Write the structure tokens for this entry.
Amino acid sequence: MRNIIIFITLTLLCISIISCWIFAMDRESYNIKYSEGTAAPTPDSTVEPTPTPVPIPEIRIYDTIPTDYDSGSTYDFGNVTSSKDVTFTIENEGDAQLQLTGTPLVEVTDDASNRYSVLTYPQAAIDPGNTTDFIVRFTSNQTSDDYTAKLIIINNDSDEGTYEINVTGYAECS
Ligand SMILES: [Ca+2]
């Protein structure tokens, strides 16, 4: 009977020693894993991943000076005795392709006396950093007067999709 008790005690002692050794090995393995730079798991983390910025087009229009004509601004042809041509430049300051989607690409509206016309149209697709030109003509006639109109450029800029430039000019008869 005494031998059996000694045997059981030794067996339990061995099991305890082996368990401690296995636990110590696991602990060492864990410490090596996370000391190598791997972040410990944080199941309750509320940090959202930073979204990647989406490339967007950015329209800018100026004339040959260059002076910017923001959407809604006015270009003044001044006093014109026969006709005057003005070149406007469209630049894409964004990082995605700028697309002109109007038909025509530059539309003249509110031109009751047909004083304005587009001589040269711009390209429909403008890559980031590139430019394209269009030319607008103001034509005088036999009646001295002020004439106004609008140039409409439909495009895929998110906040200037309908770009409008007011034009004005004084037809001066000689
Ligand atoms: Ca814009």
Observations:
- Residues 20-25, 29-35 have pLDDT under 50 and may be disordered.
- The longest strand covers residues 83-92.
- DSSP finds one helix and ten strands in the chain.
